[in-house]
């Protein structure tokens, strides 16, 4: 029973990380209708920047803020320089460019910071809570991660459902021509969407970095499972990204704990296949097609 509780708590912690990555993917999809396969490299790059700030004597809070700010700026630059030139081209062109951007960022990070993995500090203690003389595999830092991810998901849901800015971003993604006729600055909305998504990705990088060694390719497995979580919850649903991340976190934790780490990728693949076969739009997608 203790093992089951530990695996459940570990799954919740891991699921919160997957949810943060899924939120970044959902945000870009909702605002630009593009799946960004460079998301893992972008959050890796901003986490390296935060690590450099902390290693130079800055506080964790300063590194945290710098990571978010650099993510916002990086996302805006990527949209303007990489994605904007192919805005009116077939969607596959932008996807291929994000794959190229992934390779470029990994190479640049390796040249600047090297390929040797390094540690990253945590916001709070990594010592598990003690209950009845038993130390649980759930720490104050895990509590911080879960609360932050839920808070960000709530803010994003509020942004898209209750604000004029969110409505403009959605209109720019679904029907840019109509949005322009209504006076929406579509280019600015697309840039803002990428910037916000990269900032959420930077947040995910800082949150997960204490659990893994920071390196140019450290976040690739997390991006893959985060993508599965986004598809599971629905690429149009921030709350779905959180639920999808938690479901994937619990599933992979149970598989890893009872069957071994080698079967974790297979479990994620099976879940993805089942979702695509039974409900391709995701568990929390709208039941009707929206018309703009």
Account of the 3D structure:
- With 292 residues, the protein is mostly helical.
- It has a domain at 19-216.
- The chain is 72% helix and 1% strand.
- The protein has 11 helices and 2 strands, in the order H-H-H-H-E-E-H-H-H-H-H-H-H.
- The chain has helices spanning 2-32, 39-55, 60-83, 91-113, 140-162, 164-174, 176-181, 186-208, 220-233, 238-259, 264-278; strands at 130-131, 134-135.
- Strands 1-2 form a two-stranded antiparallel ribbon.
- The termini are far apart.
Descriptive key words:
single chain; 292 residues; two-stranded antiparallel sheet; 11 helices; 72% helix
Span between N and C termini? 51 Å
The fraction of residues assigned to DSSP E strands is under 5%
Profile the largest sheet: 2 strands, antiparallel
Mean pLDDT across every amino acid position: 86
Strand tally is 2
* Low confidence ranges: 287-292
Class based on secondary structure composition and strand pairing: mainly alpha
Shape: globular
Write down the secondary-structure element order.
HHHHEEHHHHHHH
Number of helices: 11
> Helicity level, as a percent range?
over 70%
- The gyration radius over C-alpha positions equals 19 Å
Q: How are strands sequenced across the largest beta sheet?
A: 1-2
Brief summary:
With 292 residues, the protein is mainly alpha-helical.
What's the layout of helices and strands?
Elements: H1 2-32, H2 39-55, H3 60-83, H4 91-113, E1 130-131, E2 134-135, H5 140-162, H6 164-174, H7 176-181, H8 186-208, H9 220-233, H10 238-259, H11 264-278
Antiparallel strand pairs: 1-2
Helix pairs in contact: 1-5, 1-6, 1-8, 1-9, 1-10, 2-3, 2-4, 2-8, 3-8, 5-6, 5-10, 6-8, 9-10, 9-11, 10-11
């Amino acid at each position: 029973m203790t093992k089951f509780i530990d695996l459940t708590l570990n799954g919740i912690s891991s699921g919160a990380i997957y949810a943060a990555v899924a939120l970044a993917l959902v945000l870009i999809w909702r605002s630009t209708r593009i799946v960004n396969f460079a998301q893992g490299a972008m959050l890796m790059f901003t986490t390296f920047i935060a690590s450099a700030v902390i290693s130079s004597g800055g506080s964790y809070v300063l590194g945290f803020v710098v990571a978010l700010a650099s993510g916002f700026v990086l996302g805006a630059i990527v949209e303007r320089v990489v994605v904007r030139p192919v805005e009116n081209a077939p969607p596959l062109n932008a996807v291929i460019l994000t794959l190229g951007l992934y390779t470029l960022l990994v190479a640049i990070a390796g040249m600047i910071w090297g390929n040797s993995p390094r540690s990253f500090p945590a916001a709070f203690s990594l010592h598990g809570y003690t209950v009845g003389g038993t130390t649980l595999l759930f720490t104050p830092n895990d509590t911080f991660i879960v609360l932050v991810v839920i808070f960000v998901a709530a803010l994003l849901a509020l942004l898209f459902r209750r604000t004029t800015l969110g409505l403009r971003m959605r209109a720019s993604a679904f029907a840019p021509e109509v949005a322009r006729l209504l006076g929406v600055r579509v280019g600015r909305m697309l840039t803002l969407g990428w910037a916000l998504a990269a900032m959420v990705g930077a947040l995910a990088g800082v949150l997960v970095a204490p659990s893994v060694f920071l390196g140019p390719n450290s976040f690739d497995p997390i991006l893959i499972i985060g993508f599965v979580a986004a598809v599971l919850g629905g690429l149009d649903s921030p709350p779905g990204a959180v639920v999808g991340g938690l479901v994937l976190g619990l599933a992979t934790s149970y598989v890893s704990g009872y069957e071994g780490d080698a079967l974790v990728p297979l479990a994620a693949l099976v879940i993805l296949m089942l979702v695509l076969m039974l409900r391709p739009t995701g568990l929390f997608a709208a039941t009707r097609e929206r018309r703009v």
